[in-house]
Amino acid sequence: MESFAKDKGIRSLSEFDPVTLREFCGTWKQRDNTVSKKLERLRSFFRFSLESDWITRNPAAKIKGPKVKQSPTMPFSREEVTSILAACDRYPDSYGRTGQWNGRRLRALVLLLRYSGLRIGDAVTPSRDRITGSKLFLYTAKTGTPVYCPLPEFVVSALEAVERTNEQYFFWSSTSEKDGAARDYMRYLSSLFTLAKVPGGHAHRFRDTFAVELLLAGIPLERVSMLLGHSSVKITQKHYNPGVLARQEQLEADVMRAWSRDERVLASMKGTPEVHGKSEAVN
């Protein structure tokens, strides 16, 4: 924004009007969802400026954001997860050798992503002390209560088996930026998905899998939301509607199974009329 203002000869915030601000937003080349988030920060900045009496009006208030198309939830199937884990054993190192430490490291990361629901950036940089026994510390809730996610023993064992490049972290060397480490592992995972022949593979789909599997197991949406670290249940419902719909299908199936004990339903399925609460054969 400072660079844009310099190019336009703008010397103070009060010189920004809606037209100039739209021109500034037009310099953003990111995707719609990123632009929408940047616009939120821009609005917050000018709202703060207005409340601080730096400006007399908020030019960002009239700027409309792009329509963001919600990406569909795409959990991996159990067969796909099996294929991805199997591909870890075939993942080559820089010399073309398989079964080496990088394949074991990717396997541990895949298991952590699948059974913790962590985002890729959080999954590649957790410190070892965040795991106590078989529980992973996720975050501290607003109430001050820590939120943990239990991990299967085989996940913890896979993490402990990862060869250490840093005593404090499982995957991160701490010599690079965290965002850079996440991008590196996203690239490794992309190659792994290709090797596993899983089309459309993406790290975030493990988070989708974690959430949807919990919902299908009957875990209340509110608890799933807590494990995902969402600030509101509405966010969970918005992003995981397919899982909510699948759970609804389960509820419907449960109701229909209960019909097997109902004489009226059984009679209707056999095509026989019911008289005084008892089914009679049609002559």
Please name the defining characteristics of this protein.
two-stranded antiparallel sheet, 3-stranded antiparallel β-sheet, mainly alpha, 283 residues, single chain
Overview of the structural elements:
It is a single chain. The longest helix has 20 residues, at 32-51. Residues 274-283 have low confidence and may be disordered. The protein is mainly α and 283 residues long. The strands form two sheets. Strands 1-2-3 form a three-stranded antiparallel β-sheet, with no helix packed on it. 52% of the residues lie in helices and 6% in strands. A hairpin with a 2-residue loop joins strand 1 (131-132) and strand 2 (135-140). The chain is globular, with a radius of gyration of 26 Å.
Structural class: mainly alpha
Using the coordinates above, name the CATH class of the domain at 78-204: Mainly Alpha
- Average pLDDT taken over every residue: 86
Uncertain residue segments: 274-283
What's the name of the CATH homologous superfamily of the domain at 78-204?
Intergrase catalytic core
Describe the sheet with the most strands. 3 strands, antiparallel
Shape: globular
